């Protein structure tokens, strides 16, 4: 898996830390870190929660 720069950019655009995003979507900060660094493939439900929180679409950050 490759690094998810789009997710990191969307998170930073909203001024959220990895820990804050993790709390909002109900996972650990380490999970957010692993997704951003390409070390974890999230479930579709988690993808949807992240997208909703970051105000983006699945296409914007998960499907290239």
Describe this structure in words.
Helix content is 62%, strand content 0%. It contains five helices and no strands. By secondary structure, it is mainly alpha-helical. The relative contact order is 0.22.
Brief digest:
The chain is mostly helical and 64 residues long. The protein has helices at residues 5-13, 18-25, 29-36, 44-54, 58-61.
Low-pLDDT regions: none
Classify the helix fraction into a percent range.
Answer: 55-70%
Question: What order do the helices and strands follow?
Answer: HHHHH
Oligomer: single chain
Distance between the termini: 12 Å
Q: How large, in whole angstroms, is the Cα Rg?
A: 10 Å
Instruction: Work out the helix count.
Output: 5
- How much of the sequence lies in strands comes to under 5%
* Total DSSP E strands: 0
For the biggest sheet, the summary is: none
Overall 3D shape: globular
Mean pLDDT rating: 95
Which class do the helix and strand fractions yield? mainly alpha
């Amino acid at each position: 898996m490759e690094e998810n720069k789009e997710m990191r950019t969307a998170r930073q655009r909203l001024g959220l830390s990895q820990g804050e995003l993790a709390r909002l979507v109900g996972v650990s900060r380490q999970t957010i870190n692993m997704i951003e660094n390409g070390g974890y493939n999230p479930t579709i439900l988690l993808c949807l929660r992240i997208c909703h929180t970051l105000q983006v679409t699945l296409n914007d950050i998960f499907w290239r």
